[in-house]
Every structure is written in structure tokens, then in C-alpha cells.
Design brief:
This is Acylamino-acid-releasing enzyme. It catalyses: Cleavage of an N-acetyl or N-formyl amino acid from the N-terminus of a polypeptide. Keywords: Acetylation, Cytoplasm, Hydrolase. By secondary structure, the chain is α+β, with helices and mostly antiparallel strands. It has a domain of 231 residues: Alpha/Beta hydrolase fold, catalytic domain (Rossmann fold, 3-Layer(aba) Sandwich). Helix content is 15%, strand content 35%. The chain contains 11 helices and 37 strands. Bound molecules: the ligand CSCC[C@H](NC=O)C(=O)N[C@@H](CO)C(=O)O.
Amino acid sequence: MESQVMTNPEDISKLYRELSLFPSLTRADVGPVITSQYGGKYSNIYTEWSQRDLERSENVKFCRQYIVFHDDKSVVYSGPSGNCTEIKGELLSKDSPSGDMKAVVRESNIKGEDKQFLEIWSKNIKVKSINLTALKKHGKVYEDDQFGCLVWSHSETHLLYVAERKRLKAQSFFQVWPSKHTHLQFKHEHNGEQFVFYEDWGETLVSKSSPVLCVLDIEGSNVSVLEGVPDNISPGQAFWAPSDTGVVFVGWWHEPFRLGLKYSPNRRSSLFYVDLTGGQCEQLSSGSSAVCSPKLSPDQCRIIYLECAVYGPHQQCSRLCMYDWYTKRTSVVVDVVKRPREDGFAGIYSSSLSPLCWSADSQRILVSCPQGSRKDLLLVETTTGSVTSLTSKSPGGSWSLLTIERDLMVVSWSSPNCPPSLRVGFLPLCGSSEEVDWVMLEESQTQPDIDWQILNFTPPPEQDNSQYPGLDFDALLLKPKDVKEGVKLPLIVTPHGGPHSVIVADWLLSSSVLCRMGFAILLVNYRGSIGYGQDSILSLPGNVGTQDVKDVQFAVESVLRGGAFDEQKVAVAGGSHGGFVACHLIGQYPEFYKACVARNPVINLASMIGSTDIPDWCMVEAGYNYSTDCLPDPAVWEQMLNMSPIKHVRQVKTPVLLTLGEDDKRVPPKQGIEYYRALKALQVPVRLLWYPGNNHSLSKVDAESDGFMNIALWMTQHLSL
Ligand SMILES: CSCC[C@H](NC=O)C(=O)N[C@@H](CO)C(=O)O
């Protein structure tokens, strides 16, 4: 049969290079309203973007500003105000509320040593540059999304941030000091502490152990570490309380030990308030749930935040909660949704609200989150809890809120055939059913050769889940637009990871390159994915390795029945839990798949539980409850082994490409090695790529690009293209 797939490595790398040029939006800030001398009002919009630089093997961050003239209801005129500028060394940055100043946490290598500075800029002058490293009040500043923050006080006199607690200098028992320094031996206080183990917060948070809240008094250039946070709590996501009387933060319990936090918003945590004068700490939420992303309303009266259950599936349908600062009452604004409603609303699935998410009247909240296979912008009325979608009638794809300020929304929109574009629009007035008039600030290049659609599947009756009956699921199908007469396309099947995650109709670099090469790609949101109601999520734990695997197989077979694809040229590729599903598929359907790629796959739940940063995940997905004091139990281990891909390895015939990250704390690379050895012993073709300095996502530019090329060539080779 004729093939139209690109097979030459040079052509493939050229195509990858071309499509990897499209940058993605990471941040936007709206500046204050300025009235021009002719009376027109405008605001500057500051945006940050990230782009792969294949020459430098790194992601580069750059900024671009735009000017938006408006009349508070609609955009009158807009355009860029200058070119892009690369940003280097900035860990965090934030304009002051008035827009008059800017704070930057910068890392700079001075004479071979990394130093951190806190800078204050005013107009065109850097008015302060405080060497935080030399001050030695704390360790490194946290720049991550989990704990990190850089927040101006309402008065613009203080800055709040999170850093690692200062560690006492530890030394060997045998440290010898020159005699004149003998008095500096600290009376042997820290001898023997040199190799003490510091727990960390797992994947992507490896050097982070004990965060502390830090405040800079700008006038006095004085940094202090806030007292009053309970010893058993790790604080983060902090901001100034109304009138700057204290600080509100999320505190995570870290006893008896820390568990991985990345993609795991289900860790016991609470909202806290620590008073600046007395150092008193008050718990503002129940303490029996997991909370995140608190945001203060513009009128400083309410805090909105997300809440979900502790343990259980890692990502679940969240509750949107509101704490009233003055009445101290908490209300649930939007509750967990079990099944999608008639109007399509399927619940809130998010572990972070955008930095600003309130409407100007402090009555409404904007949330961007998956709703099935699309990502929509949802508007929530906090008084009634009513939810409406601002984008469900707009072109399908993915709408991400970057910020909203004085009702001017800044969003990124993309779809599988269109890289991210930047748009702005005003929020319709309260109660109005008007559509948003989106104005494009930065267009992107649509890829006319890529066709995509969302397919819906109803599992056959024998695969229905008796506890959660009647659930269906979706898949995204990408295929080349022009297919020559008589050509049947090869198909790459991709189950996502998580398993409680989802693939939305977003711009996906590797899928778009594969599609432009001539492959069709089927991305399956099997039952258990987020965005389809809490019942779908709960239907999977205890059934991994069967329900997810059968859903994917059902989707593939249904698509093949259409006749457009070559059933002799089907491959499967997945990462993490997606790698678990991929390896199950080649074990359970040994004749079906002609090539398999697995990135940091879960191979054996029983052997992984002792080494992953999220042991609770192994128990929960195998169908058990988790507690921190549970001991290894042979029956549980047996069940975990039976549910794992390694159980089916003897049946495997498909050539497997394994891509492993040496520093993966989530699915340690020993999992992949376990599979590699089994396949070697069984003489199944296997190739292992080992990426030093990479973690679970294998997302460093050189690993990602090398991984892509190897995957593409593995597919062309083993599908005989
Ligand atoms: C013990 S590993 C669990 C699988 C992992 N879940 C969360 O980290 C996973 O599948 N991760 C996905 C992202 O959700 C991935 O693609 O890496």
C-alpha cells in the first residue's frame, strides 16, 4: 500500500525545528489606566512568552508589550508597543499595584558563585539591589508555582516572598581549623550534621524542604522571616491580608513525612492567617481537606480558593470556596459535579486560578479549565454559584485566562492546528448575555495541513462500570488534511498520563509534527480523565490496567472501522500512566500494535510504591485507601503486581522504545529498567534512551527534541514506512 509519511531524518528535524518556533504564553499583566492628552484611555499589557531555542538547548523567556485603548467596555484600538526582549536571570518579578515600581528576584553568577538579589526598580532606575545571599536570613528563594510568590503590600512599602529556611552550617567531625580559628569551631554544635537527610516535596521540588515566609521592608532594606507559622506546616502561595495587617497563606502539613506535591493538589492543607504584630497564626479553613490558589477580591472582602479531598485520586473535581474576611464565614460557591449538567458544565478542574481572577465588582470569578476535551473560560457568580461558559460557543480549542484587571481579560487561545495567540476582551456586564468581543493582539499561524476533531465513545455494555454506569469518553483525532487517493494513514494512539488528567484541544508540538509527517494521532481521554464529572474520575481507581486499557482499545478499533487508517500500521505511545496503558496494550493485544514508545512508564506498582514520591498514588489506583502508617501487605502487593503491565510482559511482541529521565522522582527510571530487562530476556526488540539531568516530564529542550526524533524514527522503522 502507498505511504505518504516523511521518513528522512533531515526532513523530520527541519519540520520539528519549524514548528518548535511557535512560542507559548506564560503570563500577562495589565498596567494602570492612563488618560492621554486627547482624553483617550489606555493600558499597557505586559506579556511573557516561552520558546524552545534548539541552538542553545534551552527554553528562552521573552516579553512583549501591547497598548490597548478602551472605553472600559470595549477595546477601541490596540497594537504592540515595541519588539520582544529576552528575559534572563529573573526568577520572579512583579509590578507594584500603582504600576510605579517593579520588584525582581534575580539570580546572577558572580565569580563562579550563584547569588540572589532582590531589586526594586522605579521609573528608569534600579533604586535598590539587595544581596539576599549575603544577608543569610534564609536559603534560596522559591520561584515555583507550588509555594512561590512575590507580592507587594497594599501600601507598596513591603514585599512578601517564600524561601528555604536557613540551614545551620554543618561540618565534618574531623574539620580542622587553623589555630587562630579555634574559637570558630562553634563548640562542635553542628558536627555530624553534614549528611543529615532533608526531606523534599518530590518531583520538580527536589531542593525544597522547609519554606518560610519572608518580608522585605523596602525603605530600611531589611529582610525578616515571619514568625508564628506552626512548626508542622510548610507555607506558600502567600499574599497580604486586607490593610496589610498580616499575611494569608496556604499551609501544607508535612508530618509524619512529605509526599510529592506536583500534580497532587490532594495534600492536607489549609488557609492560614498570620498576624504581623503579634505573630498569632489562625487557621481559616477546616484543615480536613486540601486547598490551593487563594485570591483576594479587589474590594479586599473575600478570598476565593479551590478545595478537594485529601488522598484519593490526585486530580479531582474541585470545590470553589469563598471565605468572607469580615464575617469569617466560608461558603461553597461551586460544589463537586458528579455528571456533566444539561448545559454542559462538568465541574471545576484546576489546581491554580489565574493570578488575577476577580471581576472589578468583586462579584464574579473567572476560571479556565477543561470541560471535556476543550478548555473553556467559565464565569462564576459568587452570590448564586451560577456558572456560564464565555467560550463554549466560540471556536473549539483551548482558552486559558492569563489575567483579568478592571474587567479586561487577557487570554491565550490555541487549538491542535493553531499555535497560541493572544487575545483581549471585556467581561460582559453582570447579568448580560452578551458575547465577548475578542480582539487579537498577537496572531499565530494556522497550520492548514492539520485536520482535527473530537470523537465521543460509549463503551459496549460489557465494559460499562456497574458502580458508575453510563459513562462515556472522548478522543481527539488529528490527521493530515490531504490524503492521496488509495492511501491509508498509519495511526499513533496516545493515552494521556495521570490517569486523572486530560488532553484538551490545545496546540501540541509533537502531535502536530507527527501529523505533518503524515501520521494520524488518536489522543484518548479514557474514563477516569478530568473534565467529565467526578463519577468518571472515581470509576477508574481499582480498575487501572483494565478499564483504561479497554477504553483505549475500543476507541482505536472504532476508529479503524471507519476504514481511513491502516490497521497493520498502528503504534502506541504514552508517558507515565500513559506509558502504563501503552505497555498494557502491547501485553494484552500482542498482535495489534507494531511499535510502542513509553516515557517514564509505570511498569510495576508493587515495586514502585517504595521509591516514588507519591506512594499513595500506587495504593489508590490499585483500589486501596492510603494512610501514612500503612505497612507492606502481601495481598496488596499481589494485587498491585497483577494490575501492572509487567504481568503481561511474556505476551509482548511489539518493539519498545523507552525514554527515561535519570532524575525522575515520580516514576523512578528503575521502573523502565525493569521492563527493559524483561524484554531483553524475552528477546523483544527494545531500545532505551537515558536522559541525565531530566525528571519525569523529559522536557529539557535537548531531551525533548532528541526524544521526538527517536520516537518519530522508531515509528517509521517499525511501521515499515
Ligand atoms: C506514580 S506516577 C503517577 C503517574 C503520573 N501522575 C502524576 O504525576 C502521570 O501520569 N503523570 C503525567 C502528568 O499527569 C505525565 O504525563 O507525566
